[in-house]
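To illustrate the input format used throughout this study, we show a single complete record. The first block contains the structure-token representation of the backbone; no residue identities are included at this stage. The design step must infer an amino acid for every position from geometry alone.
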């Protein structure tokens, strides 16, 4: 059981790393901005104070270590998703990983961002308050596809 747990943790970390590599490649290829985890860290900090939804997280009182907290939260969620994938598929999936469950799970995980994190940051359900919600949603789906591939690829590497 301990082995299954740690392999699930590694799968979540590996998938999150791949998702971050994708973000760097995308930013460099398009000249876009790199992900900024500070607003997420500020949001997490305010969760501890009982505030989930903000009109604009930028107007919430800052937290000195919000960038670090955002990164920690990002990886903690990736780890949680890796564990949940193994719980859902069963430990047999670790012995013979297949792409489809990992990809489906990767896509499903976008719900956390669309329906909790983004409204919490003040950018609306599924980025509805951003200048281009369709683009934001598409890029999110691509990133979560990369995350799903990362779950699968990491499982293959450590089986």
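Output of the design step:
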């Amino acid at each position: 059981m301990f082995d299954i747990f740690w392999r699930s943790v590694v799968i979540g970390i590996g998938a999150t790393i791949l998702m971050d590599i994708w973000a760097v490649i995308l930013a460099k290829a398009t000249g876009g901005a790199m992900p900024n985890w500070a607003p997420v860290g500020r949001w997490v900090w305010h969760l501890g104070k009982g505030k989930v939804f903000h009109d604009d997280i930028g107007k919430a009182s800052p937290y000195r270590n919000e960038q670090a907290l955002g990164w920690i939260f990002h990886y903690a969620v990736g780890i949680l998703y890796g564990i949940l994938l193994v719980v859902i598929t069963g430990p047999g999936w670790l012995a013979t990983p297949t792409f489809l469950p990992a990809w489906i799970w990767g896509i499903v995980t976008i719900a956390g961002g669309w329906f909790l994190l983004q409204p919490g940051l003040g950018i609306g359900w599924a980025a509805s308050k951003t200048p281009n919600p369709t683009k934001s949603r598409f890029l999110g789906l691509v990133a979560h596809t990369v995350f799903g591939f990362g779950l699968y690829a990491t499982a293959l590497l450590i089986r």
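Structural context for interpreting the output: The two ends are 15 Å apart (CA to CA). Helices lie at 2-30, 38-47, 66-89, 92-95, 99-108, 110-121, 133-158.
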